[in-house]
Amino acid sequence: MAEVEKGRKPSEESTDESGEEDSVEEPKLKYERLANGVTEILQKDAASCMTVHDKFLALGTHFGKVFLLDIQGNVTQKFEISPVRINQISLDESGEHVGICSEDGKVQVFGLYTREGFHENFDCPVKVVALHPRFSSSNYKQFVTGGNKLLLYERNWLNRWKTSTLHEGEGTITNVQWRANLIAWANNVGVKIYDISTKQRITNVLRDNVSLRPDMYPCSLCWKDNSTLIIGWGSSVKICAVKERDHTEMRDLPSRYVEIVSAFETEFFISGLAPLADQLVHLYFVKENSDHMEEEFRARPRLDIIQPLPEGFEEISSDALTVRNFQENECRDYRLEHSEGESLFYIISPKDIVVAKERDQDDHIDWLLDKKKYEEALMAAEISFKNVKRHEVQKIGMAYINHLVEKGDYATAARKCQKVLGKNMELWENEVYRFKTIGQLKAISQYLPRGDLRLRPAIYEMILNEFLKTDYEGFATLIREWPGELYNNMTIVQAVADHLKKDPTNSTLLTTLAELYTYDQRYDRALEIYLRLRHKDVYQLIHKHNLFSSIEYKIVLLMDFDKEKAVDMLLDNEDKISTDRVLEELRDRPELLHIYLHKLFKRDHHKGQRYHERQIGLYAEYDRPNLLPFLRDSIHCPLEKALEICQERNFVEETVFLLSRMGNCRRALQMIMEELEDVDKAIEFAKEQDDAELWEDLIFYSIDKPPFITGLLNNIGTHVDPILLIHRIKERMEIPNLRDSLVKILHDYNLQILLREGCKKILVADSLSLLQKMHRTQMRGVRVDEESICESCHASILPSDMAQNFSVAVFHCRHMFHKECLPSPGTIPGVQFCNICSAKQRGPGSGILEIKK
C-alpha cells in the first residue's frame, strides 16, 4: 500500500495534536501500489510511459520494452521494441491496436490480435504517437507521430500509407491527444487543436510561463469529453471548450472555435491531470525549502482534487504520495493516466506505479471506525447496506457498543443494544451478563426484548431482583411495563413478600404485590391490598375481573375510600349486588346509607319507593337542602310521617309544602305570613294555588301591615282586582312606596287593555284571512270523470251511457254521491251536508254542485 499523507493548506496551523486530529478530513481517494509483475520489471528497468485501457495496461520502459499488464499488474505480453527509451504508447478505443514510438526514431503500429502493422524508422527521436480512437474500423486507419514536426498517416484504398504534415517549425512536439475528430498537441510555443473532419486547425493556445524549459516541465493534455480539453503547463491550468461557430460569422474562419472557460495558477508544477466528474485531479511536482539547506529539495509528489471556477479553483482534497525514489525525480518523470470507465488514476514514476481510486462505502466506514466515529459508521452501513461488502452492520454496532461501554456511557450503550442486537438471543444474553458484571443492569433493563423474541426467564428475574434490592420504584415500573410471561411470577411474589417482612407498610411494594397477584389471577388477595391502601385502581380491578362477589362484605370500606365511585359502581351492578344487600351492610352507617339511597332516587324515583319513608329522616338529618326536592318528586312518601318530622325539626318551608299538598292551604299560608313573614312567598303561594279564598285570607293577614300591602299592590294586579285591596286600606295609613305601587297597577291595567286589543285585532285578521281562503277554495271547480266513485254505493259516479239521465251531488269536501244515494236532508230545511264529514266531526260539508242530465 502506498503511503499517503493528508495535505493541508500552508495557511492552516494547528495548536495541538488533538485539534489537528479532529480537523483532518476524510480522504477522497485510496491508494495502492501496482505490484505483481510490475515490481519485478521496475527492479531491473524504469517506467517511461504508460497507457490505460479499461481492459488492460500498456507499460513502456527506458530499455525499450513494452509490457501488456492486467489490472492487477500481471504481465500478459511483452514486446522488444528498441534498445532505448519508449516515449509514448497509444491504444484505440477497442484496445485491439497499439502505437509505439521510441527515442531512436522507431514507430510501430500493429494489431494485438492481427498481423497487420506499420513499421518505420526516422532519423530523429519520435516523442509522441496517437491512433485514431476508431482505428480498428477500416475507414479510420489514421495515426499521428510527432518529433520536430507532426505527421498524419492515412491508409488509402490501395492499402498504402499516405503521409501529410500537420505542423512544423515550432520546436519539438512533446504531447499529443486524439479525441473523436479533434487532435490536440503541444510544442515549445503552445497548444494547437486540429479538426480532422474539416482538415482545419482551429486554435493556438500560447503557454504562459516561457521561462520554464519545455523538456523539463512538459505540457499535460487531457480530453474531458469530445469538446473539452484540459491543459496543464508549469503551474498554469486552462480549460478549453470547443464550440461550433455561427454560420453567419464563418466567412474564411474555421467552423469551430475554442473558448477558455476557466484559467488559474496553481502552487506547484503540474505533472499530469485528469477529469473526475465535474472536478479535476492534479498530479503536482513539489519542491520545498529546507531549514538547514539554502537549495530547494524534491518533496513527495501531491495528488489534489480541485473544483474549477471561472477565475480560480477550490481545493477539495490534497494527498502527498510516498513513491519510490521521489527524491531523485524531476517534473518530467511523473505521469498521470486515468481509466474513464472505473475512475482509476495511475501515478507513474520511473521506479513506482501507484493506483488511486475513489473510496467506496467500505472505505468510508473504515475511516469512520479508525476515527472512532462509530455512530456515523453504523448509520452509513445501515443506509448503504446493499453496497457494503467488507463490513456487517451488526459487527459495527457491537464495536460501537463496546466503545460506549469503555467510555462509561452505559445509557447510550444500552439504548443501542435494542437496535444492534436485533433478534439474536445469544448476543442479548451476553450483553446482559456484561452489564451485570459492570453493575449496570438498570441501564439495559428498559431495552430488553419483550415481544416475539424473549430471553430466558432467569434473565428477567435477575434484573428484577437487582431493582428489588436497590430501587423499589424502578422495580414497580418494570412490573407494570413487562408482560408477566417474561418471568416466573411465583418467584417474584416470594421475593417481594420477603422484602415486605422487613418493611410491611411500604406502599410501593404492596401495590406491586397486588399487581403480581392480579396477573396470577388471585384477585381476592389483590383486592385486599388495594382496599388496604385505598388505591385508585380498586374499582377498575373489580370491574375488569367481576369481583362483585368478593366485595359484598367490603362495601363500607369502598365507600369510605370514594363514596361517589362506590355508589355509582353499586348502582350500575344491581344485578350482582342487590339493594337489600347494600342496605344491610350500611345499616350502621346512616350517612353512607343516605348517599346510596339519594343516588338511587335520582336515577329512578320509583325503584326504591319502599325506602322513601326511611329517606325522610335521612334527608332531615344529613341533607336538608335536598329534602324539599325529594318531597316534591316522590309520590310514595307518607305525608303524615313527613309532616311530623318536619314539624319536629321546625322545617317551615317543607311543612308549608306538605300542608299545601295535604289540602290545608290556609294553614300553610298562615305559616308563611306568621313564621316566615315573607309576603313575596305568600303571594307566590297564592298564585300557585289560584284560589280566591286564599287571596281573601292573604289580604286579611296583610291589611294591618303596610309593607305587606305594598307587596300585594305590586303583585296582585293580574290575579285579583286591586280595588278589593284598596277599599280595605284604612284611612291615613302610611304605606311605603304607595304612589309607585298605584302607578304600577295603572300600568299593568293599561297593558292588559293593550294586550286584549292586540289579540282582538289578530283574531279578526286571522278570521278574515281564513274566510277568504275558504271562499277561494269553495269557488274552485271539482273534476268529475270516469274514475270518480259514489261514496255511498262505490259505483262509478258517471253512467256508462252518457245519453241516460243522471243526477249527481258534489260537496266542497270533494265527496260525491248519486242523488238517489244521498241520505235524508238535515234539520235545516233546504241545506244538505256531507254524511261522511259530519260523521267524522270535520264540520258539515255543504253541497256546492248538483249535476243533472
TrEMBL record:
User: Compositional bias (Basic and acidic residues) at which positions?
Assistant: 1-12
Domain Vps41 C-terminal RING finger: start-end pairs: 788-839
Q: What is stated as this protein's family in its record?
A: Belongs to the VPS41 family.
The uppermost taxa in this organism's lineage are: Eukaryota, Metazoa, Chordata, Craniata, Vertebrata
Region annotation (Disordered) maps to: 1-28
What's this protein's function?
Plays a role in vesicle-mediated protein trafficking to lysosomal compartments including the endocytic membrane transport pathways.
Q: Which GO terms describe its biological process?
A: cellular response to starvation; endosomal vesicle fusion; macroautophagy; protein targeting to vacuole
Entries under Pfam families matching the protein: Beta-prop_Vps41 (PF23411), TPR_Vps41 (PF23556), zf-RING_Vps41 (PF23555)
- The protein, known as: Vacuolar protein sorting-associated protein 41 homolog
What's the source species for this entry? Hucho hucho (huchen)
Q: Which domain of life is it from?
A: Eukaryota
Q: How does it sit in the membrane?
A: Peripheral membrane protein
For this record, an example GO cellular component is:
late endosome membrane
Please tell me where this protein is predominantly located.
cytoplasm
The subcellular localization recorded is: Cytoplasm, Cytosol; Early endosome membrane; Endosome membrane; Late endosome membrane
| Location of the Vps41 beta-propeller domain | 29-358
CHCR repeat positions in this chain? 567-711
Keyword tags:
Autophagy, Cytoplasm, Cytoplasmic vesicle, Endosome, Golgi apparatus, Lysosome, Membrane, Metal-binding, Protein transport, Transport, Zinc, Zinc-finger
Under Gene Ontology molecular function, one entry of this record is: zinc ion binding
Acidic residues bias locations:
13-24
